[in-house]
Amino acid sequence: MDFTLSAEQSELRSTVSSFLRKRYELEPSRSAARSSIGWQPEIWQAFAEEIGILAATLPEEVGGDGGGAVETMVIAEELGRALVVEPFVSTVVLGAGLLRRAGGSKARAVLEGIASGRERVALAIDEPDSYPSGYEVATSATRAGDEWVLTGTKTMVGDAPLATRLLVVARTSGERRDPAGLSLFLLDFDASDLPADVKVHSYRTIDDRWAADIEFRDVRLPAEALLGEADHAGSLLDPAMDEATAAVCAEAVGLMRKVFADTVAYAKERRQFGQPIGSFQALQHRMVDMHIELERSVSAAYLATLRLGDAPDQRARAVSAAKVTLSRAAKFIGENAVQLHGGMGMTQELAVGHFFKRLTAIQAEYGDADFHRVRYARLSDHRSRAATGEAGVRSGAVAVG
Amino acid sequence: MDFTLSAEQSELRSTVSSFLRKRYELEPSRSAARSSIGWQPEIWQAFAEEIGILAATLPEEVGGDGGGAVETMVIAEELGRALVVEPFVSTVVLGAGLLRRAGGSKARAVLEGIASGRERVALAIDEPDSYPSGYEVATSATRAGDEWVLTGTKTMVGDAPLATRLLVVARTSGERRDPAGLSLFLLDFDASDLPADVKVHSYRTIDDRWAADIEFRDVRLPAEALLGEADHAGSLLDPAMDEATAAVCAEAVGLMRKVFADTVAYAKERRQFGQPIGSFQALQHRMVDMHIELERSVSAAYLATLRLGDAPDQRARAVSAAKVTLSRAAKFIGENAVQLHGGMGMTQELAVGHFFKRLTAIQAEYGDADFHRVRYARLSDHRSRAATGEAGVRSGAVAVG
Amino acid sequence: MDLQYSPADEEFRDEVRTFLEENLTPELRRAGRLATSVYHDHEASMKWQEILRRRGWAAPGWPVEHGGCGWTASQHYIFSRESTIAGAPALSPMGIKMVAHAIIKFGTEEQKEYFLPRILTGEVFFCQGYSEPESGSDLASLAMQAVDDGDDLVCTGSKIWTTHAGEANWMFALVRTTRGPKKQQGITFVLVDMKSPGIEVQPLVMTSGEQIQNQVFFDQVRIPKKNVIGQIDDGWTVAKYLLEFERGGSPASAKLQVQLDEIAQAAANRPGPNGPLLDDPLFAVKLADLRIRCDVLEVLEYRNLARLSEGKNPGTASSLLKIINTELSQDITVLALEAAGPQGLAYQPHATMPGGPVHDHSPPQDGYVSGEAWQAVAPLHYFNDRAGTIYAGSNEIQRNILAKAELGL
Amino acid sequence: MDLQYSPADEEFRDEVRTFLEENLTPELRRAGRLATSVYHDHEASMKWQEILRRRGWAAPGWPVEHGGCGWTASQHYIFSRESTIAGAPALSPMGIKMVAHAIIKFGTEEQKEYFLPRILTGEVFFCQGYSEPESGSDLASLAMQAVDDGDDLVCTGSKIWTTHAGEANWMFALVRTTRGPKKQQGITFVLVDMKSPGIEVQPLVMTSGEQIQNQVFFDQVRIPKKNVIGQIDDGWTVAKYLLEFERGGSPASAKLQVQLDEIAQAAANRPGPNGPLLDDPLFAVKLADLRIRCDVLEVLEYRNLARLSEGKNPGTASSLLKIINTELSQDITVLALEAAGPQGLAYQPHATMPGGPVHDHSPPQDGYVSGEAWQAVAPLHYFNDRAGTIYAGSNEIQRNILAKAELGL
């Protein structure tokens, strides 16, 4: 049991934190997000060159620093605290996680590009008629000689408008709801310069990020576009999605730390009826409940992060536990931060309004609370819980007379 | 829209209420409930002879006063307010409701006996391995010449130890989970004098009432024991169960009125930290939320009561809406009444502890909240709600471009 | 006791239905259905007001001599309920439902003659100047300085949360004419011509991106005393009178039921974990829970209506109803957002009909919408509806009121 | 960062497991499993204390010189966790975990010599005399009059919520020796021989029917001054010191996880609407939610443990953990009651092992139980567990503490 960061990890945290404090302000970042560019490329470059967070968790053989889950957590939390919109999780956690597992020279080249800040990756998986995060895929890739022919429509492809590469999940065998039979393809991508057989609709999201709907009409891909083994994308997706989920949980912790601190500060300062509103017991207890949700969230993010290396079921259960916890907390803290700020909390004048939107969006990302509740239930042994690793519960004989 | 009682109904309310205030005290009623007798027969007799509530809602041809759903609601609420344990709902609402619908001379005789206070009826329906309130019945009745042979085990037969008659739901055709194929049988019953082929285990319930598990081993019943048509008990049970459910909703309103009033009074009187605990804002808001739950409950009880005469689906939906509302309120008000009374609320010294137990039990009676949520969902048209009668919502065309 | 309308009410309801069927154009219904907040598309709303005015139904609550309908409480409820169910746009409450009542009760003959007919036609369109940056929940602490200067009051300060200040040509406002020991005293209720020199409107951008609320700055604005309603220094009396019209006045259950119907219909066509989302037991039960709360709210409203019909005071019922309906409404927006799925995260105000301009949003040139319009409405409605528990006396304040007035704590 | 035990801790855990497997008889486990509250069957509890004492593990938290184990914070946690998972009965906390620490810290040599070994053997069994009828949440307002009379204090008044007063032969109590402006001053911490003349114990019957709590009346009870712990008038210092041992001392997650395992196992065999209850999506999700809260609580406990291991003060963590674990525990009792179904409404304390006698209940002669023992436990546990949010500083008080100490409000 150890909840302290190593010296290097602490150093990483303070590097990221002080960079963001100095260089990442809310106003300009919103302006950039809402501009036609949609982000701040110079910030991304600084992430790579000045504070090295794009390489921090990548393997050493592609120019990375070999950091692990804790490093990802530290970075994501700090990015959350500053409400960074640039595509860290989709590129560095999810994208790189898939590429790393897929292996091969093409993947390796992209990983090197990620480490140096040149490449950004978006994963195209959800479809208009599929249950979100359910791996329900109708988009197909069929073999035609040496090539693959890709056909189908993807929706809400996060960060696609900024991406240099797409990772597309397509069905190469099996029925639409079959968890097997999926394959992963790597495509060059530039939303501003598209081939005729790819149609992209880009849009802003409610939290000032960007996404796109993408239609593939018989797009021909070379054989080497296939990453990993055909029909087995699930074995890449499962762990990489769990890593991404753990990372957004950490990001949510950062978001909540900020809005909670702002709320308590506001309650001490804002006066009504001749006293600070923070002196009213009903509001005090509400803020205590927010504090409790935050402390639970921190623990849940640890749980997910520190179980990423466990066996698949333990890993998935811990990640689902975390996402359920964080989603609930994000809603409770977000909504109450707004309520306690009163009307001002509903405007874009204060940080809380912007953070609230991200806290709303994050609840739905990588599976909403119900998705993860059901997954957790399915993974829990019906009779008695299996050991959740060394520190988990060991069920004794529970039968009684 | 009319929410006022008629002069006769108001009169009925004050008659019941003043009788109970004078003659039904908590201490002696608890003692009786815990004695081997288990209730106060003299009170029951007074219900029949002095205030006429056993006949109030029975048809005139069996000596009743022909009252309806509103009269039942008025009586049940007052009984709840005084925490009456005597078997009003099971005998006068559920039992009589089944007998009335079944018709026939035998049923009529029992109804006359109910009106005069001689008869008490218990319904045996749930079984040890059946989902509560799910009409899942394995107990069988098979024809043998002119007779029926009854075999099976019933559990939690409410008020059976005090009953003079049992109504037993048995399967006469179909599979165990088949909603059709059930029949209703009327048996003479005396828990203290049983035939060899009937085995009864009586027990007290957590709310100081009585119930029993009953085992029937090839019990031979005469042909006329069958009430109504064979295989069609469902058509009797559905409306009678809904009436009983509406009645316990009204009873719950009475219970909650009492514990809520006690809680507010206690909060005004009990002092800690030099002031009444009712002056603390967090507790004030809690009590306001209890008040809101109570007002919602009153409305829900009206809804159920005033829809009992509607078409089956409207009736069932209103009753389920009420039971869900009342169950939630009973839990919230019961638990918080205890919490606000502190340790004393957990003892049997104050009324609140006793009422809390009934409020706990009542949540599970006639289907718990989840049972009714699911039933309500099933009865709600998937596209848009049908008109819920004249005052219900009428859905316009809801499609938008 | 019964839950039936009287035959006369049924007849009235049919009359209303017929009128709505004949007059609600698809465009107007669209404004009702695609609204993202309680503020509907301004143009559609004013168009509908004009149609109602011609039928004599624009201001049914006014005294008959000023153009009201003399309806019973039931008729008001039925009219409001049927309009909502049919998808009619909501009218701005500021003029007809609020300040007009103050003018009728406390106004001079000249004020009545000038304002009332113009409010009906929309020639005069009001906004409300109550809250100030430092006076929110504690409204009576308001500080907008109004100095007596001959025939005028000269006002300096600022008002906030001024809905539709950009569209309005008049404002009704509370200003501070005298400072005394009791903060409720020394307040004056005034009507302000928005074209007066010294007024500056600064839109507030909400989280939804919509600019409906504003901050209005007053710099030495001259308000003729003939535009005072009631007595100088006695504006609190007028404001308290109006408060009754603001809280719990109209039925909320109908609107919420329609929203739930829309969610159900949408969920029948959205993918769930196992077939349509509507068949997912977890989703179905959440929907059932909200519908049940709506059914119960409807009965609560009928009970309140019955009290009003008997001429009784609603008492604390308006606080109770405000809490119940705003919290239910918020929970419904949460379920809608959940039903919307990933498309609910797309920011697409161009697919909706918001109550005002949208800041910093360029619709795509091809008008593309990811998913359907209701999915685009969902997040904006969720954001905007957070106001429900904040405005018109936050729900914390309502609970304080109930604790004191209803429970005697 | 990691969530693993160290190799030394793993070794220790295995040692504890082996000990538990060898020494926990089925009867003792039964007392743990069929307990209806935090108070386990008294006899089983004392038997287990004796077995632990022989192993040297009855009072691991004491200083080694008095019989403690010198364990690390991890070892304490592991021991407690493993004991719970194995189903060991809980020991009464009053003696070993509470008053003993006061005696060790503030007691005289004679007091230590007399009481500590006897607490271990059970020859001395303590109850706690803190609360009074008029002093609950506001403990410092306590009023039990203690008049100085030579070598004695003479006490008159009453104490309430005195757990196991019937079984106890000693009480530790706070009494009022001086009345001054500050209520925390003038309180004295005393040990009272329960056989002293003038003491009368009156059991309180709880809603569960159990008589574990009592009111204890003092009528001119003489307490020798040699039984004062610490200084006269300075008892608040002792009480505050003990409070640290009462709140959040031991891990709650293990017990709650075991309860959830039991619910899951039971629900696999109970009928649901469609096959086993455990397969009902609504039930499964409620169970998952509670398990998730437990998983998170476990990590919160580890974080607290890590702080303690570093020698840091737990700060407000004990209030936080108290709120989280009592509210979770109550929600678990609700799910258990739901899983129990109709049989959960049967009152059958004879099928359980309550922590004290049951009032007004005659078990059936044939020992019949409707359903299974866990179903009989469910309602009693639900009733008794309501105490969790009331005792040891109600959760409202804990929230006040957090608001002040943690948030600075």
What does this structure look like?
The complex is a heterotetramer, with two copies of chain A (401 residues) and two copies of chain C (409 residues). Chain A is of the alpha+beta class. Chain A has helices at 7-23, 26-34, 41-49, 69-81, 88-102, 105-116, 233-269, 281-306, 312-341, 351-364, 369-379; strands spanning 121-124, 140-144, 147-158, 165-171, 182-188, 198-204, 210-221, 226-227, 271-272, 275-276. Chain A has three domains: 7-119, Orthogonal Bundle (Butyryl-Coa Dehydrogenase, subunit A, domain 1); 123-232, Butyryl-CoA Dehydrogenase, subunit A, domain 2 (Beta Barrel), CATH 2.40.110; 235-386, Butyryl-CoA Dehydrogenase, subunit A, domain 3 (Up-down Bundle), CATH 1.20.140. Chain A is built from eleven helices and ten strands. In chain A, β9 and β10 form a beta hairpin. Mean pLDDT of chain A is 93; it is low at 383-401. With 409 residues, chain C is an alpha+beta fold. Chain C folds into three domains: 7-103, Acyl-CoA dehydrogenase/oxidase, N-terminal domain (Butyryl-Coa Dehydrogenase, subunit A, domain 1); 126-238, Butyryl-CoA Dehydrogenase, subunit A, domain 2; 243-405, Butyryl-CoA Dehydrogenase, subunit A, domain 3. In chain C, 46% of the residues lie in helices and 13% in strands. Chain C has helices spanning 7-23, 26-33, 42-55, 73-86, 93-106, 109-121, 235-246, 253-269, 281-309, 317-340, 373-385, 395-406; strands at residues 126-129, 145-149, 152-160, 170-176, 187-193, 199-203, 214-224, 228-229, 271-272, 275-276. Chain C has a four-stranded mixed beta sheet with strand order 1-4-5-8. In chain C, strands 2-3-7-6 form a four-stranded antiparallel beta sheet, with no helix packed on it. In chain C, strands 9-10 form a two-stranded antiparallel sheet. The two termini of chain C are 32 Å apart. Chains in contact: A-B, A-C, A-D, B-C, B-D, C-D. The interface between A and D is large, with 59 and 60 residues. Chains C, D: Belongs to the acyl-CoA dehydrogenase family. Chains C, D: This is Acyl-CoA dehydrogenase family protein. Chains C, D: Residues 7-123 form the Acyl-CoA dehydrogenase/oxidase N-terminal domain.
